[in-house]
Amino acid sequence: MAAVGAGVDMIPDPTGSFTTDLQRRVYEYVERNGAVTRDELARSITVDDGRATSKPARSGTYTESVPPTPDELRTCLEALQAEGHLTETDGKLRVALAATTTDLDCEDGRVTIRPARGRDRAGIIETMRTVAADGPYVVADHVATDLERDRALVRANEDRARVVFTAILEPASDDEDESEADSGGNADASTDGDVVGWLHVDAPERRALRHTAEVTVGVDPDHRREGIGTELLEYGLEWAIGAGYEKCYQHVPATNDGAIAFLEENGWEREGTHERQYCLDGEYVDEVMLAIWP
Questions:
Q1: Which of 9, 145, 152, 255 gets the highest tally of CB atoms within 10 A of its CB?
Q2: Are 120 and 166 spatial neighbours (Cβ–Cβ below 8 Å)?
Q3: pLDDT tens track for 138-164
Q4: Domain 14-48+60-95 -> CATH class
Q5: Which helix (H) or strand (E) holds 164?
Q6: CA–CA separation, 131 vs 140, rounded Å?
Q7: What is the pLDDT of residues 223-265, one digit of tens each?
Q8: According to DSSP H, which parts of the chain are helical?
Q9: How far apart (Å, rounded) are the C-alpha atoms in residues 15 and 285?
Q10: What is the pLDDT of residues 110-144, one digit of tens each?
Q11: Long-range contacts of 268-273 (CB under 8 A, 24+ apart)
């Protein structure tokens, strides 16, 4: 499998390293909104123009906020991209994430595992809901709710670090060779397949816990037992190692025998049990805590 992480230190929070206030404001806007165009930034970002303006009596003076000039915004974005803080694809700016893609041939076609993009959001949430309904997976259901409320699939700030990876199925076709030729042999040319799995890494930026990250992973029930879940898990853990996380953990209802068996088959170990942690369908259910030190 191709290397995923490449010499990064956790998911870096760069907000203390910017050389200008405009860089900080642009990064924070992109980080907060997930994916934005340059035009949206030009309409939304303002900076102090540095000139004191008189206010009514007893109010003193203030500096007026104005949009950056096109040259200022272009120079700012060039610097943020050159420093590896932002990336631009499909005309939209996003928080940069160092990761490659990996492919897996399955019965129904080729599955590509990669960092999630904005266009994947609806499919990821739907797959999370499907998996959570198939076997009790409370954390996955909570993550789906969080993603419905939060536009950003990548978070990197002083409070939180989060990354979502996805498995995309591109159905097999008799015209596959012809299509690849038409796309110039670019394996990433077709990116609008179906979401069949995800892996979510969530890490609060608390100093005592910076070596740990919570992982949720799941595969659509119709596409299980094809190696997708194992490949997603390996991909995510390899990225976590490269990002500096030393311990990954999951909490699963004790009644979800399939999830527990899958994790234990992949080297995860039980750390303990929270008794009667959940109330599911009127019944109290224990929570099994599992972890791995990749």
A1: 152
A2: yes
A3: 999 999 999 999 878 887 766 778 899
A4: mainly alpha
A5: strand 160-171
A6: 8
A7: 999 999 999 999 999 989 888 899 999 999 999 999 999 999 9
A8: 21-33, 38-44, 70-82, 121-134, 138-149, 176-182, 228-242, 257-265
A9: 42
A10: 999 999 988 899 999 999 999 999 988 999 999 99
A11: 268/292
Reported as type and span, the H/E element at residue 292 is: strand 283-292
By DSSP bridging, strand 212-219 and strand 194-204 are antiparallel
Q: Are 111 and 171 in contact (CB under 8 A)?
A: no
pTM of the model: 0.74
Nearest to 240 by CA among 198, 210, 208: 210
Task: Give me the residue spans of the domains in the chain.
Answer: 14-48+60-95, 102-245, 246-294
Distance CA 225, CA 221 (A): 9
- The alpha carbon dihedral of 256, 259, 262, 267 has a sign of negative
One of 3.90.1300.10, 3.40.630.30, 3.90.1310.10, 3.40.50.1220 is the CATH number of 102-245, namely 3.40.630.30
CB 180 within 8 A of CB 203: no
